[in-house]
Write a structure and sequence with these properties.
It is a multi-pass membrane protein. This protein is an all-alpha fold and 84 residues long. 86% of the residues lie in helices and 0% in strands.
Amino acid sequence: MTLADGIGLVAAACSTIGFLPQALKALRHRQTRDISLWSYLLFVTATVLWLIYGLSIQSTPVIVANVITLPIALATLVLKLRLG
């Protein structure tokens, strides 16, 4: 693993973990009033595109980050759609 890959994996972990508290709070409280639907639609779209990009360039940090982030973002989006 290169230094760049290591830095990428740490950045990926930070980015992914950063969205986890919001998802857990929404799930725990069953309240998503303060979450922007458009923000999460854009975020999920960006995550899918980053994953496709990572796969196309075979970048482990980009792939790992987005494979982990996508379900978290999708869960939050689904909660937002269901709970309003």
